[in-house]
Every structure is written in structure tokens, then in C-alpha cells.
Amino acid sequence: HQSSVISDHSESSIENRASKFLQIHDCFIIAENEDGFCIIDQHALHERIMYEQLKRRVRNNPLESQKLLVPESFQLTKEQSDTLENNSQLFEKLGIELVPFGPKTIAIQAFPVLLAKAEPADFLRDVIDMLTEKASTLDADSLFDEVLHMAACKAAIKAGTKLTDGEIEQLIADKETVENSSHCPHGRPTVIKFTVAELEKQFKRT
């Protein structure tokens, strides 16, 4: 019986050593690497990953969408309605299905799967407001890129979200699959790296 307890404890220790990362304050992930360790901003990194995925998927086809169990409706001003009509192809690319729902009211019937973390009505309002504000200053490609930036931010893991070990492992793995993973779409760093040599210097071990 004693050997069984020792064996279980050893297996547990091995498992703990295998998880060479730690989430702190539900915002940052400390992960060991070959030279030392890095600190990951979970929201900034996931925002970059989401942006790259969105950009890649809409290149040739609209985003995959799913029907909402209960369509979300909201009222539009005349200006918002005009913006919606003038950018109907953009919303089709995003996989957002809209239908009239009474006077000055629109209903969201389908929403992109990749943006499942976003609130459909809030997201649509924000996109319409951004398009209304910037349509006169940006060309079509730049405008759509701004929309993808917004979509990535809305869909990304938020700061303050507790992650499971599996979610952290997936986030770290996905980091290696995207370009420019060192910065989020807005230019903020996603990762700060520290080497063992830098730590030794701080602790006056050199």
C-alpha cells in the first residue's frame, strides 16, 4: 500500500512538472521556454490569433454562421439604416444574417461561429457606428480590416477570465501558427520574454 502511495505521488509530481505555465490574476500567463520564461497577455495574444483566423477565413468565403435560437432585434436611426444598406456585402462576408423586423428595426437571425464570445446586437451596433464614422476616410479594404480588428477584440478571451490548463495549452500552441504573434492587431505586445541570464543578473548571481 505504501509503494502505491509513493507511485501516485510521483506520477502527480511528474504531471505538475509537465505543466510549465501559470496563470496569474486571470490576465497573464507565465510560460517556461528554453532560455527562461515569457509573460503572455492572454487577451492581446488571443486577439492576434482571432484576427489572423478571421482574415484567413474571409479571404475566399463568408464566415461560417449559426442561427440564433432567438433572433436579436434593435432599432436603427436613419443614418444607421443607410450605413447598413451601403455595407450589406461586408455583413454577408462576416456571416451575419439580417432581416427587417418592423419599422426602423432590424433582426439578427444568424451570427458567425468564430465570434461566439461576442454579443450579437452590441457587436453589430459597434460595427455600424464605426462604419458610419470612418466610411468617408478609409477605402473599402481598410474599412473591412478595421471591422476584423473589432471582431477579433470582441471575440478574444477577456482579461479576468480563468482558463483551464487545456485552454492555456491551446493558446500557447496557437501562438506558433500565426504571423506577427508578438503584437496584437492594435500594436500592443502580446509577450514579454526574460532569459535566465537576466534573472541571474537581477539576483546578483553573475
- The neighbouring-strand order within the major sheet is 1-2-3-7
Helix content: 40-55%
Query: What is the radius of gyration computed over CA atoms, rounded to a whole number of angstroms?
Result: 22 Å
Give the terminus-to-terminus CA distance. Answer: 47 Å
Mean residue pLDDT: 87
Our estimate of the beta-strand percent is: 15-25%
Number of helices: 8
Order of helices and strands: HEEEHEHHEEHHHEH
Main sheet makeup? 4 strands, antiparallel
Q: Kindly name the structural category.
A: alpha+beta
Shape: elongated
- The parts where pLDDT drops under 50 for at least 5 residues are 1-18
Number of strands: 7
Provide an overview of this structure:
The chain has 206 residues and is α+β, with helices and mostly antiparallel strands. It is built from eight helices and seven strands; from the N terminus they run H-E-E-E-H-E-H-H-E-E-H-H-H-E-H. It has helices at residues 2-18, 42-57, 78-86, 88-93, 120-134, 140-155, 165-175, 196-202, and strands spanning 21-24, 28-32, 36-41, 65-75, 97-100, 105-112, 191-195. A four-stranded antiparallel β-sheet has the order 1-2-3-7. The protein has a three-stranded antiparallel β-sheet with strand order 4-6-5, with no helix packed on it. Strand 5 (97-100) and strand 6 (105-112) form a beta hairpin. The radius of gyration is 22 Å and the shape is elongated.
